[in-house]
From TrEMBL:
Domain FAD-binding FR-type: 297-559
Keyword line: Amino-acid biosynthesis, Cytoplasm, FAD, Flavoprotein, FMN, Methionine biosynthesis, NADP, Oxidoreductase, Phosphoprotein, S-adenosyl-L-methionine
Molecular function terms from GO: [methionine synthase] reductase (NADPH) activity; FAD binding; FMN binding; NADPH binding; NADPH-hemoprotein reductase activity
Pfam families (UniProt xref): FAD_binding_1, Flavodoxin_1, NAD_binding_1
Cofactor dependency: FMN; FAD
Protein's cellular compartments: Cytoplasm
Basic and acidic residues bias spans: 222-234
GO cellular component, one term: nucleoplasm
Subunit organization: Forms a multiprotein complex with MMACHC, MMADHC and MTR.
Region (Disordered) location: 184-205, 222-258
The protein's Enzyme Commission number: 1.16.1.8
Gene from which this protein is expressed: MTRR
Protein name, UniProt field: Methionine synthase reductase
Length: 723
């Protein structure tokens, strides 16, 4: 029942305990819903579902979008919800209809008074609206009368979801037991003492931090009678090989640990049940297209009509502008919208993975999947993101995120396919609770991929079905529109930095971002770095094509009232949507010369004035014409000119203009837009705004934060940020 204990010289015990007294009772059912964007919430919900049976519970698992399979209005069982957050604080796309339904203002305050629930929110504290997807649902359920039987958990992907997820799941079983015990007690008391007040029978929610001890007391761990002697002998052999292995390195690494971890007993996760059966069938050589990539949104294949390098060759980052020809499609957009680019994995990484899996000679074989007849995975289903009848190479290239950081569940699964004793032990450490710090340091923070792990642990030989079960869907990459359709009809512009980073997991390798590296290669044929313009228009090179899809949730738009003043904050490539804003405003002012248009402020920043000042000429043009009324630019790496200390960052420039910023936001109903880096810039700008409001309005910091929160609620403080 509890996670199995693994000692440095002990047997691996996958014990299956029974909750005391539960074997004599009927399984206790609870409803388990998940709202997922990239599969994280689903994986956690499935883990809860798998563990429920061993704890004497039956989980009725559904995606929150499957409203035809559950009914909260009549639900009598306790509810458990796992909710991720997408964008800058939105519930995932799968929860949009659910959230819209419960936000109905016509619903009475006791609509869910019968409901008892526990909620686990997933988020990233680098974003302002941390875990906001879960918080929105949590708040609304309570407003409609639902009550917690278990306190809400907020897991932070910035430091590692498992730090909250694992103890929250551990505590869930005792909370459910307490709920069912209390409910049964209520029924008995109600039968015997009809005069007892309802208030005296109310149950307080259980706090996750108090539950681990209760859970350990309640649960009885038993040895698994099905464990084979051969498994014990195999593990003993592993332990002997560990004792005779050469001394560990003085410092820990991905493949080596040091005391106390190397000598510790380990709590490792239960082995995820395997559920896929894979057959590789020789292909007839049919042509495969990106159109086979699964998407809930329509996909448009569009040609690249222009590519421009916006930075000099000696800039720290290379920034490209790409123009897409959307004139022959139904794709439409507004300035400030974002869209998805559907991209493949690196061909070299796919070939290296095939070689490591010893499947190179079968890469063109057709992948046929079905569910294992004897699987123990509850509700097992074929992965929707793996299309039928396509080659292994196509699936690894277009469908699976092979660069994804492996989750602990995958590390746990790899353990059983690793023959070398020390390697097996190290994988156990990395997926254990005791090895959480090492997992974060050597896997998560280093952005290690599955291929990195397989190269680091050569005795690990996983079957293909295991990887298809665990690798997540290759996600499309979002980009902000950097143009206006009024200014560029039939065209769509976007800009990006070519992401480069040094990977040192197994050897030093310079890697590029999955999408930006691919895009750079795609436009290389039409990009002429010497003139920094493309030759796709009127040139001999054929225009390359890419696939795009619209983003379903777009909110980053100009105010409906053109007289409202706006402040735009966009350092680096964060300037992209604001170029669209300015182009749009210029055309509107041409069409309505007598119209009243509000002031437009832009705070832009980059490293060097002469290397990466993006759209310099365009911004000067807008400023000269009065479209852009205030242009405030800073350069963080240029040497100071004169005695005055330079303004290095956008938040410093905002602070210099505190009075004007406060007046626009507090007295003129202005809007402020922030686009760019979430980790540093967006937080610093937010803190600066709190400071400005506090000082200029003469209020305490807490009151200033409330004012800023009100601006967000009124959609007058909008963010389009990324980490």
């Amino acid at each position: 029942i509890s996670t199995p204990t693994v000692g440095a010289g002990a047997q691996v015990s996958e014990s299956k305990g029974l909750t005391c007294g539960i074997c004599c009772e009927v399984m206790r059912r609870f409803l388990l819903l998940y709202a997922t964007q990239k599969g994280q919430a689903k994986a956690i919900a499935e883990e809860i579902c798998e563990k429920a049976f061993a704890h004497g519970f039956s989980a009725d698992l559904h995606c929150i979008s499957e409203s035809d399979k559950y009914d909260l209005k009549t639900e009598t069982a306790p509810l458990v919800v796992v909710v991720s957050t997408t964008g800058t604080g939105d519930p995932p796309d799968t929860a949009r209809k659910f959230v819209k339904a419960i936000q109905d203002k016509a619903l009475p305050g006791d609509f869910f008074a019968h409901l008892r629930y526990g909620l686990l929110g997933l988020g990233d504290s680098e974003y302002t609206y941390f875990c906001n997807g879960g918080k929105i649902i949590d708040k609304r359920l309570q407003e409609l009368g639902a009550e917690h039987f278990y306190d809400t958990g907020h897991a932070d992907d910035c430091v590692g979801l498992e730090l909250v997820v694992e103890p929250w799941i551990d505590g869930l079983w005792a909370a459910l037991t307490k709920h069912f015990t209390s409910s049964r007690g209520k029924e008995e008391r109600n039968g015997a003492l009809k005069m007892a007040s309802n208030a005296s029978q109310k149950m307080d929610p259980v706090k996750p931090e108090l539950l681990h001890l209760e859970s350990q007391v309640e649960l009885l761990r038993l040895d698994d009678p099905g464990r084979k002697d051969s498994e014990v002998r195999e593990q003993n052999a592993v332990n002997r090989s560990q004792s005779s292995a050469p001394p560990a390195a003085s410092e820990s690494s991905l493949t080596h640990s040091i005391p106390p971890l190397s000598q510790a007993s380990l709590n490792i996760p239960a082995l995820p049940p395997e559920y896929l059966q894979v057959h590789l069938q020789e292909s007839l050589g049919q042509e495969e297209s990106q159109a086979s990539v699964t998407s809930v949104d329509p996909i448009f294949q569009v040609p690249i009509s222009k590519a421009v390098q916006l930075t000099t060759d000696d800039a720290m980052k290379t920034t490209l502008l790409v123009e897409l020809d959307i004139s022959k499609t139904d794709f439409s957009y507004q300035p400030g919208d974002a869209f998805n680019v559907i991209c493949p994995n690196s061909d070299s990484e796919v070939q290296n993975l095939l070689q490591r899996l010893q499947l190179t000679d079968r890469r063109e074989h057709c992948v046929l999947l079905k569910i294992k007849a004897d699987t123990k995975k509850k509700g097992a289903a074929l992965p929707q993101h793996i299309p039928e009848g396509h080659s292994l190479q196509f699936i690894l290239t277009w469908c699976l995120e092979i660069r994804a950081v492996p989750k602990k569940a995958l590390l746990r699964a790899l353990v059983d396919y690793t023959s070398d004793g020390p390697e097996k032990r190290r994988l156990q450490e990395l997926c254990s609770r005791q090895g959480a710090a090492d997992y974060n340091r050597f896997v998560r923070d280093e952005r290690a991929s599955l291929l990195d792990l397989l190269l680091a642990f050569p005795s690990c030989q996983p079957p293909l079905h295991l990887l298809l079960e665990h690798l997540p869907k290759l996600q499309p990459r979002p980009y902000s529109c950097a143009s206006s359709n009024l200014s560029h009809p039939g065209k769509l512009h976007f800009i990006f930095n070519i992401v480069e980073f040094l990977s040192t997991t197994t050897m030093e390798v310079l890697r590029k971002g999955v999408c930006t590296g691919w895009l750079a290669a795609v436009v290389a044929a039409i990009l002429r770095p010497d003139t920094r313009v493309s030759r796709a228009e009127g040139g001999t090179a054929p225009a390359p094509q890419i696939s795009i899809s619209p983003r379903t949730t777009n909110f980053f738009h100009l105010p409906s009232d053109p007289s409202a003043p706006i402040i735009m904050v966009g350092p680096g490539t964060g300037i992209a949507p604001f170029i669209g804003f300015l182009q749009h405003r210029e055309k509107l002012q041409e069409q309505h010369p007598d119209g009243h248009f509000g002031a437009m402020w832009l705070f832009f920043g980059c490293r060097h004035k002469d290397r990466d000042y993006l759209f310099r000429e365009e911004l000067r043009h807008f400023h000269k014409r009065g479209i852009l009324t205030h242009l405030k630019v800073c350069f963080s790496r240029d040497a100071p000119v004169g005695e005055e200390a330079p303004v290095r960052y956008v938040q410093d420039n905002i602070r210099l203009h505190s009075k004007q910023v406060a007046r626009l936001l507090l007295h003129e109903r202005g809007c402020i837009y922030v686009c760019g880096d979430a980790k540093n810039m967006a937080k610093d700008v937010n803190d600066t705004l709190v400071e400005i409001i506090s000082k200029q309005a003469g209020v305490e910091k807490l009151e200033a934060m409330k004012t800023l929160a009100t601006l967000k609620e009124e959609k007058r403080y909008l963010q389009d940020i990324w980490s």
